[in-house]
């Protein structure tokens, strides 16, 4: 599949007349718990020739290219990327730290990662993960029977909130790194690890009775972070001057 992905990325560059500066895997494969039939979700950052950005007419700042049922490829233009970086966009921050990289311009990604560490907006990050967890909890886990994989749709963002609160850093992409948090009990870790093993084996769609101890943990954390995030200072964003300088330095002549 990696060869197919590389070929697709090269074809996009040729057809769209752009440079792909960075391409990674996102979703369950990047998180470290794909199932046997998980899709490949490829995400990339690209730049176009300088004159493209000088056109009077508005042009799309992203590309969505479904290749097949198993392969989905989406990309963000450099200008869109930097605007989202200024807002500490969680999806972008996860791209920048994905463990599965398909291609990269080493200097570009090193500079972009360094820029991303400036003025990390903890409030915005927690709001994002909290909203994700709350929505998935309401939709999937407030039932007598649930599917295994739905627990991870709530667990991962809840653990991400805990990581931000504990370390004041962006949370790691790999799910198992989140399990190193100091406040997770041995009993809870056993439950999570058992579910994780079953998901990887392909049991993710099995319906079964909800797990009271896990649901209680999630409900307590959702309640806590709903209040906690209200008291956080939004903090300053990355300055527009820095973002503009970065943008101009990486425009293709």
Task: Describe the structure in your own words.
- It is a single chain.
- This protein has 253 residues and is of the alpha+beta class.
- The protein has two domains: 2-118 and 237-249, Beta Polymerase, domain 2 (2-Layer Sandwich); 122-231.
- Helices cover 53% and strands 15% of the residues.
- It has eleven helices and seven strands.
- The chain has helices at 2-16, 28-31, 78-86, 90-96, 106-116, 122-141, 148-167, 175-178, 186-201, 212-228, 240-249, and strands at residues 19-26, 40-47, 62-66, 71-77, 101-104, 145-147, 207-209.
- It has a five-stranded mixed beta sheet with strand order 3-4-2-1-5, with helices on both faces. Strands 6-7 form a two-stranded antiparallel ribbon.
- The mean pLDDT is 91.
- It comes from Candidatus Enterococcus ferrettii.
- This is Nucleotidyltransferase domain-containing protein.
- InterPro entries: NT_sf (IPR043519), RlaP (IPR018775).
Helix and strand arrangement:
Blueprint: H1 2-16, E1 19-26, H2 28-31, E2 40-47, E3 62-66, E4 71-77, H3 78-86, H4 90-96, E5 101-104, H5 106-116, H6 122-141, E6 145-147, H7 148-167, H8 175-178, H9 186-201, E7 207-209, H10 212-228, H11 240-249
Parallel strand pairs: 2-4
Antiparallel strand pairs: 1-2, 1-5, 3-4, 6-7
Largest sheet: 5 strands, mixed
Task: Give unreliable regions as ranges.
Answer: none
What is the CATH architecture term of the largest domain? 2-Layer Sandwich
What is the CATH C-level name of the largest domain? Alpha Beta
Radius of gyration: 20 Å
Helical residue percent band: 40-55%
Number of domains: 2
Query: What is the element string, with H for helices and E for strands?
Result: HEHEEEHHEHHEHHHEHH
* Overall 3D form: globular
CATH superfamily of the largest domain: Beta Polymerase, domain 2
Query: CATH topology of the largest domain, which one?
Result: Beta Polymerase, domain 2
InterPro entries: NT_sf, RlaP
Pfam family, one: RlaP
Protein name: Nucleotidyltransferase domain-containing protein
Organism: Candidatus Enterococcus ferrettii
């Amino acid at each position: 599949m990696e060869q197919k992905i590389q070929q697709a990325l090269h074809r996009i560059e040729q057809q769209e007349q752009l440079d792909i500066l960075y391409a990674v895997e996102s979703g369950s494969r990047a998180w470290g718990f794909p199932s046997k039939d998980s899709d490949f979700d490829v995400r990339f950052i690209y730049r176009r020739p300088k004159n493209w950005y000088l056109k009077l007419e508005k042009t799309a700042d992203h590309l969505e290219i479904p290749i097949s049922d198993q392969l989905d490829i989406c990309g963000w233009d450099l200008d869109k990327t930097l605007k989202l970086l200024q807002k500490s966009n969680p999806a972008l921050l996860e791209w920048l730290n994905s463990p599965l990289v398909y291609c990269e311009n080493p200097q570009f990604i090193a500079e972009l990662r360094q820029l991303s560490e400036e003025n990390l907006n903890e409030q915005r990050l927690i709001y994002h993960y909290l909203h994700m967890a709350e929505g998935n909890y309401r939709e999937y886990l407030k039932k007598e029977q649930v599917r295994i994989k739905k627990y991870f749709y709530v667990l991962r963002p809840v653990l991400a909130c805990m990581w931000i609160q504990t370390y004041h850093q962006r949370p790691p992409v790999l799910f198992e790194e989140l399990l190193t948090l100091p406040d997770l009990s041995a009993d809870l870790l056993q439950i999570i690890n058992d579910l994780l093993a079953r998901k990887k084996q392909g049991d993710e769609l099995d319906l079964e009775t909800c797990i009271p101890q896990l649901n209680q943990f999630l409900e307590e954390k959702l309640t806590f972070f709903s209040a906690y995030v209200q008291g956080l200072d939004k903090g300053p964003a990355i300055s527009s001057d820095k973002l503009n300088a970065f943008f101009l330095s990486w425009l293709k002549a």
